[in-house]
């Protein structure tokens, strides 16, 4: 048994080394992938729960890897954050999203805003505000058509830098959303200190709605909504998969929904067709 255990450990280590090597190779391939145009964005609708209109779309990055096929962000975003390559990759996402969103005008109604995920490192890096400002100037996208999604972990620092950067961005007229709200550890003080416009409530609070076990989720959602509305913030519920959930969320007072019920992430052409 002892030797089997030993062999097991040896096997485990080899496997882990292999995985680690694969991760490093993947990470090292990001800059070349960017150069060769292997990354692209899908967009997912953010839909009003009041009238069903398209309020915005979230940009979600994908990697058409020459050998591994299309990779979801879960496969490479964490890596890019660890290595710092997220600054380069995230910069590309931001620019591409603004470039594509400029064309989304409609003859009737408000054109949707584009919502872009920002990694912790991107917000903490000096120069973000300048980057965004020149991007808006270059593309001509009005600031109120750009939303930046940050997570609670972005605010878990004693540094003043992220707060200053986000204030400057909000002063430009850009919308700021807290992503996956309710899943991180944080105090709520940043809601007071930051010019946040929207809370995106994580899908895990939505999933069980309308089942008897979800009474607690429903109460949590209802209190999040009243907290948000008291602070003049809108609430978007993520992971809405059924009409029943959407109806419950509307009754609870959520403003917007995102999820398969309203539309899966889709190509820019699909989004454009939907706007027209
Ligand atoms: P997220 O920001 O929470 O994005 C929502 C994720 O939920 C997306 O997965 C989306 O496809 C998925 N989703 C949407 N509707 C439903 C639904 O009804 N049910 C379920 N089960 N899932 C749904 P995706 O595209 O795989 O993205 C995963 C995560 O990767 C994102 O989570 C975000 O944290 C990160 N990510 C994506 N693009 C970027 C980016 O450009 N920069 C950074 N820093 N992170 C990104
Ligand atoms: Ca997000
Ligand atoms: Ca989210």
From TrEMBL:
Tree of life domain: Bacteria
Membrane-crossing segments per the record: none
Residue ranges of domain EAL in the record: 23-276
Protein name: Diguanylate cyclase (GGDEF) domain-containing protein
Full-sequence range covered: 305 to 580 of 580
């Amino acid at each position: 048994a002892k030797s089997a255990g030993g062999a097991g450990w040896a096997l485990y280590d080899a496997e882990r080394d292999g995985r680690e090597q694969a991760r490093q190779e993947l990470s090292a391939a990001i800059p070349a992938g960017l150069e060769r145009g292997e990354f692209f964005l899908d967009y997912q609708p953010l839909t009003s729960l009041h009238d069903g209109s398209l309020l915005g779309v979230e940009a979600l990055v994908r990697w058409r890897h020459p050998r591994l096929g299309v990779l979801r962000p879960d496969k490479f975003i964490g890596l890019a954050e660890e290595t710092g390559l997220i600054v380069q990759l995230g910069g590309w996402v931001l620019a591409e999203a603004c470039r594509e969103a400029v064309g989304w005008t409609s003859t009737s109604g408000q054109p949707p805003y584009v919502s872009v995920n920002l990694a912790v490192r991107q917000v903490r890096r000096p120069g973000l505000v300048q980057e965004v400002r020149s991007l808006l100037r270059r593309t001509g996208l009005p600031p109120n058509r750009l939303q930046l999604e940050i997570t609670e972990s972005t605010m878990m620092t004693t540094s003043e830098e992220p707060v200053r950067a986000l204030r400057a961005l909000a002063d430009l007229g850009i919308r700021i959303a807290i992503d996956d709200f309710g899943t991180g550890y944080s105090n709520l003080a940043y809601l007071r200190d930051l010019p946040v416009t929207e809370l995106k409530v994580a899908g895990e609070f939505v999933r069980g709605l309308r089942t008897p076990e979800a009474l607690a989720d429903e109460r949590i959602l209802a209190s999040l909504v009243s907290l948000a509305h008291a602070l003049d913030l809108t609430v978007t519920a993520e992971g809405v998969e059924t009409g029943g959930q959407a109806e419950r969320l509307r009754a609870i007072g959520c403003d917007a929904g995102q999820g398969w019920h309203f539309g899966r992430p889709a190509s820019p052409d699909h989004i454009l067709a939907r706007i027209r």
